[in-house]
Amino acid sequence: MEELVIRDADVVDGSGSDSYRADVVVDGGRIVSIVKEAAAAGCQRPKARRELDAEGLVLSPGFVDMHAHSDLALLRDPDHSAKAAQGVTLEVVGQDGLSYAPVDDRTLGEVRRAIAGWNGPGDDIDFDWRTVGEYLDRLDRGIAVNAAYLIPQGTVRALAVGWEDRAATPQELDRMRQSVAEGLEQGAVGMSSGLTYTPGMYARDAELTELCRVVTSYGGYYCPHHRSYGAGALQAYEEMVALTREAGCSLHLAHATMNFGVNKGRAPELLALLDEALAAGSDISLDTYPYTPGCTTLAAVLPSWASEGGPEETLRRLADPGTAERVRHDLEVTGSDGCHGVPVEWDTIEISGVGDPALADFVGRTVQESADRRGETCWETARGLLLADRLAPTILQHVGHEENVREIMRHRVHTGGSDGILQGAKPHPRAYGTFPHYLGHYVRELGVLSLEECVAHLTSRPAARLRLPDRGLVREGYKADLVLFDPATVAAGSTFAQPRTLPTGIPHVLVDGRFVIEDGRRTDVLAGRAVRRTPPA
């Protein structure tokens, strides 16, 4: 007898088609049968060792977080309710060009310092891997939800070139090609970049194109955080479209939005650019989170020249008064490349986390507010915090536009991604709320998307981008990564004031046919594994 039958569910199957009522039978980690309108038809109902009454609940495929920063959280936090409770059954990590494989001992230490604001310093992690394959094997020991991995181009560059702002030599480019090829062979699904983060931002287009050619040959995709989301945003999108067209590479635009005052109301221009490229044959998708503020590290807004050479060199420059004044001028007058070419507005930058608990008084306040309290200029406050916390502070950046968010999420190639940073005392609520916020706020309350459309955005579309032949749909033979939610009550619990509050209206989540959330509570099941690249047919 099969393991589980889910009775009388309203199935929203991920295809975008209308929902239907059915009994769904799960066994051996897969959906083995779907009996539509079973009760109404009066037919013999399927039986199983366990029955779950889903009356009033929607059954859908598990949600795919196309942009996650859980690279270490998956290892340190077996509970991982931040994502499991949202109905997320698969996360894509290795984002924004910086993560922890492939590395050597030197590069690992540098990367750990550079992205401590994203993932913590990692002092509680046994870094017993160096290659992509070894990291994926580590995930296979058991994690809360599944995870796929993008090869981080910035880490690859740090490994081959270092943190200098210069073109790679032919030998260094060969080494980077080899690192990307090896990572794809070992199971990575593509390559990411962080082109406003060092050292990835130092790569010229020709270098990126060559690496994308390698990605193309393995059937992967390129996921850039491109060079600007502010001044020059459209040109930055055009650059990525042209680059991947030349390389013949599939393109997935990370947290695709139009931010800062210069881009208010300009989402239609971005979508027209993408529609033109799609009509010309480009393979493009994108992800967004359903909020207006962004989230990154405070150090990320610095000009790239100030970060050349790695974190220790950055701290040295900040400590030198003359060099620090040059940094201030670039930030406040010129508009640094780290701040997307826009002069920094300190009243939009809210400190969301610090590494040193002694600095907790900064958290929850903008740099402007803290400076006013301290009787300092904003730059004095920001510089002092960066030095005292050794570049660890994370920030919320309140620079987005609601009309842009809504326009982009309607697009036919849109998918969902939280960009969720789980570190800090006051993280962005998207880390705990992205997927229920789509379903509760943008579907039920605002009607921006229909329920069927939204579920397709969060399930089958990302599964197609990841080339996963047996995920993303409620279909017989597919993996039983499933979520049951109440469409009348599903909502994000997280807010900017209480960002770690779990969602409501999602009582059950299954990974590999096993309950990771049951009756609204996290179980002790660790059914997640690494999801490796599917070779092209």
Describe this structure in words.
It contains 20 helices and 20 strands. The strands form 3 sheets. Strands 1, 2, 3, 4, 5, 17, 18, 19 and 20 form a 9-stranded mixed sheet that branches. α15 packs across α16. With 537 residues, it is α/β, with parallel strands linked by helices. The mean pLDDT is 96. It holds the Pfam family Amidohydro_3. Keywords: Hydrolase. One of its GO terms (cellular component) is cytosol.
Secondary structure layout plus pairing:
Elements: E1 2-11, E2 20-27, E3 30-36, H1 38-41, E4 48-53, E5 58-61, E6 63-65, H2 73-76, H3 81-84, E7 88-93, H4 105-114, H5 116-119, H6 132-139, E8 146-152, H7 153-160, H8 170-185, E9 190-194, H9 205-217, E10 221-225, H10 233-247, E11 250-253, H11 267-279, E12 284-288, E13 294-297, H12 304-307, H13 311-319, H14 321-334, E14 349-353, H15 367-374, H16 378-388, E15 394-397, H17 402-409, E16 414-416, H18 430-445, H19 451-458, H20 460-465, E17 482-485, E18 508-511, E19 514-518, E20 521-522
Parallel strand pairs: 1-4, 1-5, 6-7, 7-8, 8-9, 9-10, 10-11, 11-12, 12-16
Antiparallel strand pairs: 1-2, 2-3, 5-17, 13-15, 14-15, 17-18, 18-19, 19-20
Helix pairs in contact: 7-8, 8-9, 9-10, 10-11, 15-16, 18-19
Organism: Streptomyces collinus
Domain Amidohydrolase: 51-517
Pfam families: Amidohydro_3
Key descriptive features of the protein:
537 residues; alpha/beta; 8-stranded parallel β-sheet; globular
Q: Whole-number average pLDDT?
A: 96
Broad structural category? alpha/beta
Number of strands: 20
What is the count of helical runs? 20
The helix content, as a percent range, equals 25-40%
**Outline:** globular
Radius of gyration: 23 Å
Q: Tell me what portion of residues adopts beta-strand conformation.
A: 15-25%
The residue ranges in which pLDDT falls below 50 over 5 or more consecutive positions are none
Largest sheet features: 9 strands, mixed
N-C termini distance? 35 Å
